[in-house]
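S.,

Sequence below, as promised.
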Amino acid sequence: MNYQKIGLLSKDRIPVLRRRPRVFWGACFVASAIVTVIWSTQQSEPVRFLVLCGVLELAGFLLVPCALHLCSAAFLDWARSAEAFVKAAERDRLIHWYNTELTFFAGTRSMLVASLVFAAVAAFAYAEGGFRGGFTLGGWIWVECVIFVSAFMAGCGLWVMYCGGMAIWRLGARFMDSITVRAGRFGVLSTGRMLAFCWAIIGAVWFMYTLSALFGPEHTKLSEVLRSYPVLLIAVPTLPLICGIFIGCQIPLHRGMMAYKKREIRLVEQRLDEIMADDIAVLAKKRRDEIEFLRHRWSELESLPEWPFGAKSLASVSGSSVMAVLPVVVKIVEVTKPQTWFAV
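The prediction came back faster than expected:
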């Protein structure tokens, strides 16, 4: 059994994407930007119109496809190297997990439905959030089209993040008794580093969507910022989503790591008990060397990690979560500042 090639929805789903995906997405961005510039000349607030549409077009047509490419490459490379921390006897089952669980990168019907729902929610949030002020009817229709398409791409990215987390959960649950733990960075700890890398990219992209949520009506009170529909429905849920999936999906791996440590420590202690049953004064040198080896092994096992991520990975994910909602945080700080702070 061999690893199958798994395609990527933003490269292989549309025939024109297969040869030149970068040209396709670049052309989409340029075409939409041209239309935005044309429509901006008819708006009473042309700068806000340009910035709002430009941020969403940049995120939807360039950043999301780029993020999908980078994250899928990192995730699939990690998945193929999972043999480093799953027992060799499970190789065929591991390949089967890879070939069946990771096909979501190529796009599924569930992804399509979820992305359409998210796009509809985003369009509703911006419409109800008072973003239409200063725009003509035609200009606002174009803004809503940009929001819908960009949010659809963002929904694809969020669905990939969710499915990636579920795939890791199932890996840990399916191979819980076959997990091996090493202190090296190429073992099970590579899971946390891979996720931290992907989550950093997701946080950077989501920063743009959160930023766009601030180009609506001017808010002067904290309650107005927090009750804004784009903030409530798009920005705020991001923080628990990113952190929750990162930690939650690795719980079965954590349990497998704990089971491995307990199992190996028990074997070492049983062997020590067998040897120490004899009088240590009459033990042969060979037995004494074995005792020393077993004690050293016991210390190594005790120091092994119990979670598939280190402190650096956790700090990176925390930073990514803050980055994702940073524009809202800055806006909240600005609104809550005493008025005298702005005095020159």
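The chain is about 70% helix and 0% strand.

Coffee later?
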